[in-house]
Amino acid sequence: MRTIDSLGDIEAKRALVRVDFNVPIVGGKVGDDARMRRAMPTLELLLERGAKLLLVSHLGRPKDREPEFSLAPVAEHISKLLHTEVQLAPDLDNVPDGDVVMLENIRYEPGETKNDPELAKRLAALADIYVNDAFGTSHRAHASTVGVAPLVERSAAGLLFQSEVDTIRLIMNHADRPFLAIMGGAKVTDKIAVMDKFLDSADIVLVGGAMATPFLKVLGHDIGDGLCEEEGLEPAREALEKDGYPNGKLRLPVDLVIADEFSEDAEVQIIPGVDVPDGWMQLDIGSKTRTEYVAEIRKAQTIFWNGPIGAFEHKPFAAGSLAIAQAMAQTEATTVVGGGDSGAAMAEFGLAHSVTHLSTGGGAALKLIEGSTLPGLEALKA
Ligand code: AMP
After folding, report:
1. How far is Cα 59 from Cα 49, in angstroms, rounded to an integer?
2. Does domain 4-162 have CATH number 3.40.50.1260?
3. For a tag site, which of 163, 179, 283, 374 has the least CB within 10 Å?
4. CB-based pocket (< 6 A), ligand 1
5. pLDDT of 382
């Protein structure tokens, strides 16, 4: 992966910088700017070295040029973060001259998601160099993440992109031990390849959330009306077999918080085992499991977490995820949160700044852990 330093002298060069400013827009303003702030070191470094920036990002999934997907609020917000004027270019044919220009939503261009070579050429014609800091979009081959890279003089990864890739590679190849992986969330099939990697590379793998349900079902427990992905049963069975459960690395809940419906107002019970009666569903780990999982976190030197350990959006089912988040915030270990909903949980608990690394690209981070190729990363090689 080429870095910004490999670009050499970039004084007065026009840099096309792909950023991931796909942020929530609330009432015509940027709602949460955490993602934008993470790209600022790259933008500041390029400006310090004298480059002129043309920022390119997508926002949502526009079908046409719907105004609600305009990056105008984002351009206004960058100008505050960088303390400099930021102009918005309405399209590729009307790019004003300026130190920092933001191009309108690149997905207004139909060729973007098709990695259309013509669009890539038009983008490249606007720049001398290309810097990609949009790790969260690197698992997609689009014109602004892949097509444009070989068409400019020089290209490189931005500082955020680089730190995302370096962090994942570090924990997968050189983690301090014990190395603990925590897997939660809803869909086993999305994450089974990642779990498989952790069964090889980690020392302990804690499972929680709806992820745990197919495992419990395969082990012969009653799962009541809990969310259980049918296609997840076979992968769960294979994972248990590969692990040699219960004598391997996998840990499953030993008690549960159950409810009669998926809602804040549900009737809630804590059960001492993992057999869920009909008409009930498990929505969080119980207190004994919480204590066991927190104890594992305290022993670990490297911890990776992806996926909430219960339906944390509802207060009665947030205790498990909160306990994990707090224990991660308190440990001296290297802590990595794989973005997505576990990132949202960290932010909701006000602990996002207490971890070593919070990924801005949940999907891309999981692909990298799986060992899949990221087209956006490949485009920055050699
Ligand atoms: P994922 O996108 O796979 O990480 O799943 C995240 C979602 O899983 C969150 O919205 C959680 O509310 C949900 N979730 C976590 N645990 C459970 C559970 N035990 N039952 C139902 N949904 C859950």
Report:
1. 28
2. yes
3. 163
4. 184-187, 190, 209-210, 227, 282-283, 307-308, 310-311, 313, 340-341
5. 55
